[in-house]
Amino acid sequence: MEKKVAHNPEGCSKHLLAIRDTMELLSGKWKIQIIGALLLNDKVRFMDLMRTVDGIGAKMLSKELQELEINQLITRTVCDTKPITVEYQITEYGKTLKSVIHEMELWGTKHRQRLFETVE
Amino acid sequence: MEKKVAHNPEGCSKHLLAIRDTMELLSGKWKIQIIGALLLNDKVRFMDLMRTVDGIGAKMLSKELQELEINQLITRTVCDTKPITVEYQITEYGKTLKSVIHEMELWGTKHRQRLFETVE
DNA sequence: GCTATTGATTTCCTTTTGGAAACCGGTTTC
DNA sequence: GAAACCGGTTTCCAAAAGGAAATCAATAGC
């Protein structure tokens, strides 16, 4: 009996690996939302993010920001102001995620519409 | 003192909500990989997926497939063959995720290249 | 001196996720 | 009848993710 498996080990896993890489950087409940906020605003303070990203707590926010900084998707700048403020800004590299996130936004919007249509 | 917060509650949260919606459907270690495999092959059996999606266990695979089916991204067809086989297939609706996943794949590929370049 | 604000960190806890192994039921092959 | 293949489910456990609240350090205003 011949094999009929068409699972193309090399080509297939290469695609899946890339997808996996992307997901790893963006996984979790908050990272994409933070990036999304930073894509819209450019230069946002910690407390602004607390208000923008609905429901996030201080611990999560600071942890996620650290990870994003390590991956060079954002920069962190401490400002020498009255009460110390910190500005987060998306990097040029971070901006390359724009297309990915935009597609997610488009799809999410249509999906939500579809859910409402189905109910009616 | 005037407010200098520029967090645009309505417009902003609408974008973030859509992103959140998409992420929710695709979150977890396996779902996108499964969809990716189904996008490449169209009609894949359970055991094929076990082999294609590297490292997944039976429990996870069947659980993830159930969730994808509930969300109408894939269909499940039981075939009346010698040892019973089950074919999973992506739906037309599931195919609309193609652009999202494709962007992820592109970005992941470039990101991996960038990592190697930086090391050199 | 007390309180508020900003940007965190730490502790403690609960929930979610994921994995390994056993088992099941049906069918085929030896 | 034993073993193997297919497509699961169940149990039991470990690890990861996430949240609430307390704390902290610096500074500003009252």
Task: List strands and helices in order, with pairings.
The structure is a homodimer of 120-residue chains.
Chain A: H1 9-26, H2 31-41, E1 44-45, H3 46-52, H4 58-70, E2 74-79, E3 85-90, H5 92-95, H6 98-119
Antiparallel strand pairs in A: 1-3, 2-3
Chain A binds a DNA duplex (30 and 30 nucleotides) through helix 4.
What's the Cα radius of gyration of chain A? Answer: 19 Å
| Mean pLDDT over the residues of chain A | 86
Q: What is the N-to-C order of secondary-structure elements of chain A (H for helix, E for strand)?
A: HHEHHEEHH
The number of helices of chain A is: 6
Biggest sheet statistics of chain A? 3 strands, antiparallel
Count all strands of chain A and give the number: 3
Structural class of chain A: mainly alpha
Low-confidence stretches of chain A: 1-11
Strand portion of chain A, in percent? 5-15%
Assembly state (oligomeric): homodimer
**Largest interface, chains and sizes:** A-B, 46 and 46 residues
- The side-by-side strand order for the widest beta sheet of chain A comes to 1-3-2
Can you give the helix content of chain A as a percent range?
55-70%
Cα distance spanning the termini of chain A: 51 Å
**Shape of chain A, please?**
globular
